[in-house]
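A protein record in our archive is deliberately plain, so that people and models can read it alike. The tokens are whole numbers drawn from a learned vocabulary of local backbone shapes. For reference, a complete record is included directly beneath this paragraph.
>
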Amino acid sequence: QVQLVESGGGLVQPGGSLRLSCAASGSISNILRMGWYRQVPGKQRELVAGITNVGITDYARSVKGRFTISRDNAKNTMYLQMNSLKPEDTAVYFCNKAYGSSWPWGQGTQVTVSS
């Protein structure tokens, strides 16, 4: 089973930026679509950004124009550049496949947007 390790989270002020990384223990090059998800306590995990194996991206309405997803298949790594962060972006962020059955979920990385 592929293991996923998310990193790059932290505490940032509103309007700030963070870059999240997702390292996979196995190849992601053949994975049709990968995604970044986020979850807050008491709510379901939601997909905020997806990227296909040829680089086509899509975003949730709440983050469109502020977040940018990218992937480096050669490094088995995916990224999420988050700009103009808002308090409502506070969540634990996870990466995983965004189509078909998921790999085991990693621990995620906490993003807290607060002044």
